[in-house]
Design brief:
heterodimer; A: 238 residues; B: 430 residues; mainly alpha; four-stranded mixed sheet; 21 helices; 6 strands; 65% helix; globular
Chain lengths: 238, 430
């Protein structure tokens, strides 16, 4: 049986299943299409693939592809590729580190990094980290010490709250990198006090149990805090 | 039949079900409405978030602020981590970019020139993140992921000023014209991509928690609220007295996060999982003050809202508000131009129109119509001029942005009536 071409529109038959039916000179051709479970409507899935059907048991070509259909088919393929690529990328980016994900990440790395898709989504995991508190002490020319707690000035309703806290936590985690810079910055900020030195302090919070709360205590009471000096930096003379 | 053709044909038939399944999974012809809700919500969140950062722009992201370039080298080593700020040298460039970015966020939210402003918003957001990566947290990551998907998607085709422009353009040619709602297979594919993103996020978030003693032991929520970030004495007091709440909240969080990626796909379980996830984020917002994060996550979850639910909601709204017929003067060019603008915002097509010159109303006489536009309601009431507009703006969601003009107590009516009457009297000259 040779290739048959037709421009005849199909008729749609519904019953217990949806079918597109062509009445061709060589016989009757039919293609099953999707049926919506809820409404029973026939749905032609967008799929710019070449139509094939069985005519009396033998496969035949239905209308040949036009250039528009070729474009459609290429677009479909490109869209599918992008979807697969992106889906794999977000799974690989979040997957635990092992030999397979490491090699996959090397492939996806530029894409993930450029579009900032590299995330592990480990919110408060594996354990909730009780974040340390930050404060600093400014010593002025008369040897008086002024203690500042940046978090006290923040409002939980503004985004600056988390930005500033995150910044100081990063400083506390990396005092050797940021200590000197932050102290110099604070020297400038408190120039009116004529600071001589700045001492950065980390306050580590100890375990605070429900019983402590019931006993009227507070998680930030001195007994639950360990103060740890991070760095003391001399301010440049004005 | 040649053997090659036979094989090709057989091959096609064999793979046809696979192709059909693939198309069913990704390429259904659907509207963009779930993505549009995400666009509006994320655009609004970004506008507010970065707008509030304006006073700290140079401190947080400037070269003389908290992250000078010398220190940034410790954080950014990958050449693929790019920021527009890397190429700035003078403070005015930061300020100009920030103003432009906020403008793009507003345009993105409103859906104005969406096809290009969405990319500007994505580039801007990534630029802020990479200029000072120390100050970013989970919400910045999920925002970037959702923005990229919205950039891929054909957003701006509904619930947007772009759609208003499209409808207005059609109505200028024919006031009764009503362009069909946009649907596309690619819109559905991008919605699916956003769904996968949310499912992946929940899955890995849940799995990560299972590895921790705090979560497995059922105490994680207690530690969370003793944290200086989220400390609240009243909550801590309640949890200390009723410690079982800590266990329920801890295991409930894990349960939702693990169940979500598996049960969200089924038709029957989706509403429950969606409600649970939204409830979880509502609690993050209220109890932990994570407003921005919770809002952005909720917008990501909008991808699971079925377009049919939204169209059902629209139909219910139309039924509740009842039919409205606006009668206008078809000989008045200004009236027609005004109607074009007005109707372009009526996305739910609640307003019917009638030109009294060609189709006189049985309810409002032509003499009355000469003086003012009228709105006829299902109960037969006819509201003239300013009162007609005032009635409509409250009942047509696309016109809600006009409510402040029409409903300022006393002032709206005090000034609205004379302004409308003056325009109506001089409409032939406008």
């Amino acid at each position: 049986m040779g290739q048959e071409e037709t421009s005849l529109p199909p008729s749609v038959h519904t019953g217990n299943r949806c079918r597109l039916i062509w009445e061709l000179p060589a016989g009757r051709a039919e293609i099953r299409v999707g049926m919506r479970a809820d409404t029973g409507d026939c749905t032609l899935i967008v799929s710019p693939v070449r139509w094939f059907a069985k005519v009396e048991g033998s496969p035949v070509h239905l209308p040949s592809l036009t250039s528009a259909q070729w474009r459609g088919r290429l677009t479909y393929a490109a869209m599918s590729l992008l979807l697969v690529w992106h889906s794999l990328a977000i799974v690989v980016a979040s997957s635990p580190d092992n030999a397979i994900t490491r090699s996959a990440r090397s492939l996806f790395e530029p894409y993930l990094t450029l579009f900032r898709l590299k995330n592990e989504w480990s919110f408060y995991a594996p354990d909730v980290r009780v974040e340390p508190g930050f404060r600093y002490v400014v010593e002025d020319a008369s040897a008086e010490r002024h203690t500042f707690v940046p978090a006290d000035k923040l409002s939980r309703y503004l985004p600056t709250d988390i930005w500033v806290k995150d910044w100081y936590i990063h400083v506390m985690d990396n005092p050797e990198t940021y200590g000197e810079f932050v102290a110099a910055y604070l020297c400038r900020e408190h120039a009116s006090l004529h600071p001589v030195s700045i001492t950065l302090l980390e306050l580590d919070q100890n375990e605070f149990s429900p019983q402590d709360q019931l006993n009227g205590k507070h998680p930030f009471d001195p007994e639950f805090l360990d103060e740890r000096p991070l760095a003391t930096v001399q301010c440049p003379k004005a | 039949m040649p053997e090659g053709v036979m094989l090709a044909g057989a091959n096609q038939i064999t793979f046809a079900p696979l192709r059909q399944a693939w198309s069913q999974l990704w390429f259904q012809d659907k509207p963009t409405t779930p993505l549009e809700i995400a666009r509006i919500g994320i655009g609004a969140a970004l506008l507010l978030h970065y707008g509030l950062a304006t006073p700290h722009l140079l401190t947080f992201w400037g070269d003389d602020g908290w992250m000078p370039r010398a220190l940034l080298a410790n954080e950014i080593a990958d050449p693929w981590q790019q920021s527009v700020f890397f190429y700035f040298t003078a403070p005015w460039q930061w300020l100009t970019f920030h103003a432009l970015f906020l403008f793009c966020c507003a345009a993105f939210m409103l859906g104005w020139r969406t096809s290009w402003v969405k990319w500007a918003v994505l580039i801007g957001h990534i630029s802020y993140d990479y200029r000072n990566p120390v100050m970013t947290y989970g919400v910045d990551s999920i925002t970037a992921c959702l923005l990229l998907i919205l950039c891929f998607a054909p957003v701006g085709r509904a619930m947007s000023l772009d759609r208003v422009r499209e409808v207005r353009s059609a109505k200028r040619k024919n006031l009764a014209a009503s362009p069909p709602a946009f649907t596309s297979a690619w819109a559905f594919a991008c919605t699916r991509l956003m769904q996968i993103q949310m499912a992946v996020l929940f899955f890995f978030s849940g799995i990560g928690k299972l590895a921790g003693d705090d979560w497995r032991g059922g105490d994680a929520i207690w530690w969370l609220f003793t944290n200086s970030y989220y400390y609240n004495n009243d909550i801590l007091e309640l949890l200390a007295k009723q410690y079982w709440l800590v266990n329920v909240a801890t295991y409930g969080t894990i349960l939702i996060e693990i169940a979500f990626p598996f049960l969200i796909w089924q038709r029957r379980s989706r509403p429950y999982l969606l409600a649970a996830a939204l409830f979880l984020h509502f609690q993050f917002a209220v109890l932990m003050h994570l407003y921005y994060f919770s809002w952005v996550m909720a917008m990501g979850h909008m991808s699971f809202v079925r377009p049919e639910w939204l169209s059902g909601l629209g139909a219910a709204w139309r039924r509740k508000m009842g039919e409205m017929e606006m009668i206008y003067d078809g000989n008045c060019g200004f009236c027609k131009r005004s109607m074009v603008w007005f109707l372009a915002f009526d996305g739910l097509r609640q307003i019917q129109i009638r030109d009294f010159r060609t189709n006189p109303s049985p309810i409002v006489s032509n003499e009355q119509m000469i003086k003012a536009l009228y709105l006829v309601l299902p109960d037969g009431r006819a509201l003239p001029g300013f009162e007609a507009y005032r009635y409509v703006v409250l009942r047509v969601p696309g016109l809600w942005w006009q409510i402040p003009f029409f409903y300022v107590p006393l002032f709206s009516r005090l000034f609205g009536h004379p302004i409308y009457n003056w325009i109506a009297a001089n409409r032939s000259r406008l």
